[in-house]
C-alpha cells in the first residue's frame, strides 16, 4: 500500500503513536500560551514589509489572528492523519495562492518555533525529564508542520514546470501532426487522381478504398490535434523504465487505502524516450485510475516485446476508462485520463488504446515501438567495466 505524504513525513521524523500521546499530554499546559504566541507572531509581521504587502487591510489582520489561534489549537490536537494533512494542505495552498514567498513562510515558522519552545522550557522548568520529552516532541510536530507547508510549494513548483513543458510540447506536437497530415492529404490527392483515371470498375474500387483510408487518416489526425493534451517536450533520453514508473507513482496523490502495484519485465530494461511526456502520461492515467477506484489496487506494468515497450494501466473499475475503443476509430483522446497518453504515444510513433482486461475492469495500453535499448545498454555497461 502506498503511504500518504503525512505518513512518509511522520516516519522520517519518528512521530509515532507514542509521540502523539505525548502531544495530547502536553497540550493542556501549553494552550494558555496561545494568545502570547499570536501577539508575538503579529509583532514580527508588522515590521516585515514583504509580509505587510500581503495584508491589505485591518480585516485581513483580524482574520489572520483568528486563523492563527485555530492553527495553534489544531497543532496540539492529534491524530496526525489524512484529515489533518488535508487541513494543512489547504493552508499551504492559501500561502501559495496569495503569493507568500517560501522564505517568509520559513522565517515565520522559525519565529513560531522559538516562541513555542521557549514556553515549553519555561513551563517545564521544574520538571527537567518531562521538559526534555515535551521539548523534543513539540519540536518534531513543528517540523511536520513545516514539511507539510513546503510540500505545497513543491507541488506548485512542479505544476509550473509542467506548464512550461506543455508549452514546449505544443509546438512539437503541432509539427508532428502537421507533417503527418500533409502526408495524408498528399496521399488522398494522389488516390483521388488515380480514381479519376481508373479504366475499369475493379481498378476504380481499389483506388476508392485507398482514398477512403487516406481520408480516415486525415480525420483521425484532425481529432488528435484538437483533443490531445500537451504533455511536455524535451529530447530523447535513455532511462530505466522502472525508474520512470517510480517517478510517475511518486507524483500521484493516492487516496487512503488505495494502492498502485508496479511491474516491469525485465526489471533492468531501459528505453530511449521523451521523459516528460511519458511521465506525465503515466501520472494522468494513474491519477485518474486511483480517483475512480477508491480503496482498490491499480496495476501499472511495462513489458518488453521485441524492441517495443507495452505499458498498461489497469483498474478493477469498469467505468474508469469506460469507452473501450481502439486507436483506429480516432476518438482515443476524448475521455478523462487519456489525453496525455495519446499525445505521448503519438510522439513515440506508437498508439494508445483502451481495452478490457481478461480479469475485468478497464485499462489503457500504450504501444511504443523501437523504444527499448536493452542490448545496446548492456554492451555499453560491459564496455564501461572492461
Summarize the structure.
This protein is α+β, with helices and mostly antiparallel strands and 386 residues long. It is built from 13 helices and 7 strands. The strands form 2 sheets. The protein has a 5-stranded mixed β-sheet. Strands 1-3 form a two-stranded antiparallel ribbon.
Report on this model:
By secondary structure, the chain is an alpha+beta fold. The chain is built from 13 helices and seven strands. The chain has helices at residues 5-13, 17-30, 34-45, 49-54, 58-75, 82-97, 102-123, 128-197, 201-227, 241-250, 275-292, 339-347, 374-385; strands at residues 236-240, 259-265, 270-274, 297-305, 308-315, 351-355, 362-368. The radius of gyration is 28 Å and the shape is elongated.
SSE inventory with pairings:
Blueprint: H1 5-13, H2 17-30, H3 34-45, H4 49-54, H5 58-75, H6 82-97, H7 102-123, H8 128-197, H9 201-227, E1 236-240, H10 241-250, E2 259-265, E3 270-274, H11 275-292, E4 297-305, E5 308-315, H12 339-347, E6 351-355, E7 362-368, H13 374-385
Parallel strand pairs: 2-4
Antiparallel strand pairs: 1-3, 4-5, 5-7, 6-7
Helix pairs in contact: 1-8, 2-8, 3-5, 3-7, 6-8, 7-8, 8-9, 10-11, 11-12
